[in-house]
Write a structure and sequence with these properties.
It is a single chain. The chain is mainly β and 105 residues long. The chain has a single domain, classed as SH3 type barrels, CATH 2.30.30. It has strands at residues 10-13, 22-29, 32-35, 40-45, 56-61, 64-65, 69-73, 78-79, 82-86, 92-96. It is elongated.
Length: 105
C-alpha cells in the first residue's frame, strides 16, 4: 500500500495522548511518523564536548504510528481521508476524498 502521508504534510493526531493536536510531519521511518511538537519525550543525554553537546534532559519528538494521524484539510479545518486521482499524463495526485481538492501542489 502506498503511503498516504509524506514529509512536510500538515496532519492531525486522531488517537493517543495528543489526540486533536496538529503539526507538520518532520520525518518518516517506515510506518512511523515524527510530527513537530507532538508526542514529546524527555531524553537524558550525556555531555560530549567533542561534538558540542552540553548534556542534560532534552525534550524531543517520538514517533507515532501512521494510522494515528490524518492529513489536515485547511478548507474544512479538520483531518480528512485521502484518495488518488490519475492525471492524463499518468501522474498520481493525492486528493481529499470529501472535496476532491488536490493535496499536492
Amino acid at each position: 500500500m502506498a503511503n498516504r502521508i509524506k514529509k512536510g504534510d500538515q496532519v492531525v493526531v486522531i488517537a493517543g495522548k495528543d489526540k486533536g493536536k496538529q503539526g507538520e510531519v518532520i520525518r518518516m521511518d517506515g510506518e512511523r511518523v515524527f510530527v513537530s511538537n507532538i508526542n514529546l519525550v524527555k531524553r537524558h543525554t550525556k555531555p560530549n564536548p567533542q561534538a558540542g553537546i552540553a548534556g542534560g534532559v532534552v525534550e524531543r519528538e517520538a514517533s507515532i504510528h501512521v494510522s494515528n494521524v490524518m492529513p489536515f484539510n485547511p478548507e474544512t479545518g479538520r483531518g480528512e481521508r485521502i484518495g488518488y486521482k490519475v492525471l492524463g499524463d499518468g501522474r498520481k495526485l493525492r486528493v481529499f476524498r470529501s472535496s476532491g481538492e488536490a493535496l499536492d501542489v
